[in-house]
Structures are given as structure tokens and as C-alpha cells.
Specification:
Length: 78
């Protein structure tokens, strides 16, 4: 799953795996969380830097799937 779609169990597993070496990578988009109905917790991605303050964030700003008009319209709704 992308990180914004992880549930509590997945979150706890990730925290446990990363506990000793603090070496973790996740991918996600906090504007695309759509699986709350199956237990996904948006808080997982929103609080990632609180859980892992040493983490580096890399934003992928280029959209290769949509035209700029579609991107602009979507961004105006978010």
C-alpha cells in the first residue's frame, strides 16, 4: 500500500521494523487517501515526521499522467 492507505496494524509493523536502525522508506500522497472504509488511517502519513523526525521528504512535483488543466482543477479542490 501507499503509506496514506495503511491501517493501524501496518503502521505498528512499520514502526516495529524501523525501531532499531531507524531506516525506513515510505511512499504516499496525503491528498489521495481513499481507503478509510477499509481501515486506512490518514494520520499515519500526516504524523510520519513526528514518528521519524530524522526522515527526509522528497516531493515528486511532476505529473506525467494528467494535463496541466486537469492538475490545476484538482489542486483547486484539494
Amino acid at each position: 500500500d501507499e503509506y496514506q492507505d495503511t491501517n493501524l496494524a501496518q503502521y505498528l509493523i512499520i514502526k516495529s521494523l524501523a525501531q532499531e536502525h531507524r531506516n525506513i522508506a515510505v511512499v504516499g500522497d496525503d491528498a489521495q487517501s481513499i481507503y478509510a472504509f477499509r481501515g486506512a488511517r490518514i494520520e499515519n502519513i500526516l504524523n510520519f515526521t513526528n514518528d521519524f523526525p530524522e526522515a527526509k521528504e522528497y516531493r515528486l512535483e511532476q505529473n506525467y499522467r494528467s494535463t496541466q488543466n486537469v492538475v490545476n482543477a484538482a489542486n483547486s479542490l484539494i
